[in-house]
Specification:
Layout lengths: L4 E7 L32 E5 L8 H4 L2 E3 L19 E5 L3 E5 L5 E5 L5 E5 L30 E8 L5 E4 L6 H8 L17 E6 L5 E6 L14 H8 L4 E7 L8 H14 L9 E6 L5 H13 L5 E3 L8 H15 L28 E4 L5 E4 L1 H8 L6 H14 L1 H7 L7 E4 L2 E4 L3
Parallel strand pairs: 1-3, 2-4, 9-11, 9-12, 12-13, 13-14, 16-17
Antiparallel strand pairs: 1-8, 2-7, 5-6, 5-8, 10-11, 15-16, 17-18
GO cellular component, one term: cytoplasm
EC number: 3.6.5.-
Pfam family, one: DUF1967
Length: 429
């Protein structure tokens, strides 16, 4: 089964908790703090494995949770960092954030990796909080929570050559002849519902990867038929081989087929029309095909390479392979994915990242004030509420962020309930 798009949930590991501990050596009175830090939580990392061809592994397991870092120990011993969770993906995988639809990584080379969900740092032990005023603090910090994110994995085939054309024009047959690929072929429309890859070797020992892509129909760029599922795979190809049925046995006009498919490629807005195109006039073993080819050439009136072949009799197959290999040699260093603005211009891109200190105050049905926001929720999770000094530190942090003033502006009075992530506090003036 070919799987080329999946949605999965990722949870990086939380950091280990810091510890409150003191030196206990004999004959050392008033031993100072000796609580170690927690270890870093595991990050979720995606890595390319060239042995994989599909995203099948992610079809049945959709949730991935990385390990937590070890807690700190006494005698200033730090907890061990957790090992990163490495997920293997095939070359050509694009990772996108579901919420923002932003591309997080585009992985194409073997061994290439990207950290998608970052593990939380370890909480600090009490020895980290020692000051001249407070030389023996009796509180420590919990580990930072790891990032949680929902992503889509999208696979775009890394083929040099893409076979395009209407259903049943002979793309799969051609691929089966020139490579060891064995696509399932039947005498009905839309036989190919998943792309097939094949390695092709020319008689002069030049090799390239060819993809037989599902049949295009009118409206594919707008998602009709297999639509974007097909066009997504054309994006990475360097050369487009346009297979046309010249026999006209199915009542279609070859020139009309050619025009429709080129319109769909252009409408997809990924500069597909700029790629070199070779027209393959297939089914030339049928007598009517020669007349159709002449009419096609007259209507075309463009300097496009047309190679007449017959997949049935194997006529001109070698000539086609030579032509494809020669065209690939000419464009092998061209990056068709680059936009016009990127060519020859080096720019630094500064992205706006919203401040983490932002918070929002709402009211529950029972009149309680609910405070939410990344920074305050992170502080809440990292505070040990069993320790009074840690609670007082949390109150100071809230005050410094301006939450107290904001609550007063919303009308909070002495004794009102304030909620943060399920925890309840009394507002004290």
């Amino acid at each position: 089964m070919f799987v080329d798009q999946v949605k999965i949930s990722l949870k990086a590991g939380d950091g280990g908790n810091g510890i409150t501990a003191y030196r206990r050596e004999k004959y050392v009175p008033f031993g100072g703090p000796a609580g170690g830090d927690g270890g870093r939580g595991a990050s979720v990392v995606f890595q390319v494995d060239e042995g994989l061809r599909t995203l099948m592994d992610f079809r049945y397991q959709r949730h991935f949770k990385a390990k937590k870092g070890e807690n700190g120990q006494s005698s200033n011993m730090h907890g061990k960092n957790a090992e990163d969770l490495v997920l293997k993906v095939p070359p050509g995988t694009i990772i996108k954030d579901v919420e923002t639809e932003q591309t997080l990584a585009d992985l194409v080379e073997h061994g290439q990796s990207a950290v998608i969900a970052k593990g939380g740092r370890g909480g600090r032990g009490n020895s980290r909080f020692a000051t001249p005023k407070n030389p023996a603090p009796d509180f420590s910090e919990n580990g930072e929570p790891g990032e949680e994110i929902e992503v889509t994995l999208e696979l775009k085939l890394l083929a040099d050559v893409g076979l395009v054309g209407f259903p049943s024009v002979g793309k799969s047959t051609l691929l089966s002849i020139v490579s060891k690929a064995k696509p399932k072929i039947g005498a009905y429309h839309f036989t190919t519902i998943q792309p097939n890859l094949g390695v092709v070797v020319t008689p002069d020992q030049r090799s390239f990867v060819m993809a037989d892509l599902p049949g295009l129909i009118e409206g594919a760029s707008e998602g009709v038929g297999l639509g974007h599922q097909f066009l997504r795979h054309v994006e990475r190809t360097k050369v487009i081989v346009h297979v046309i049925d010249m026999s006209g046995l199915e009542g279609r006009d070859p020139y009309e087929d050619y025009t429709i498919i080129n319109q769909e490629l252009k409408a997809y807005a990924q500069r597909l029309e700029e790629r070199p195109q070779i027209i393959v006039a297939n089914k030339m073993d049928i007598p009517e095909a020669h007349d159709q080819l002449e009419q096609f050439k007259n209507k075309l009136n463009q300097p496009v390479k047309i190679i007449p072949i017959s997949s049935y009799t194997r006529e001109n197959i070698d000539q086609l392979l030579y032509e494809i290999a020669n065209t690939l040699d000419k464009v092998k260093d061209v990056d068709f994915s680059a936009t016009e603005e990127q060519i020859g211009v080096n720019r630094v891109v500064y992205k706006h990242t919203p401040s983490q200190d932002q918070f929002k105050i709402t009211r529950d049905d029972d009149g309680a004030y609910v405070v939410s926001g990344n920074a305050i929720e992170r502080m809440f999770k990292m505070t040990d509420f069993n320790s009074d000094p840690a609670v007082r530190r949390f109150a100071r942090q809230m005050r410094s962020m301006g939450i107290d003033d904001a609550l007063r502006e919303r009308g909070a009075e002495n004794g009102d309930i304030v909620r943060i992530l399920g925890g309840e506090f009394e507002f004290v003036e």
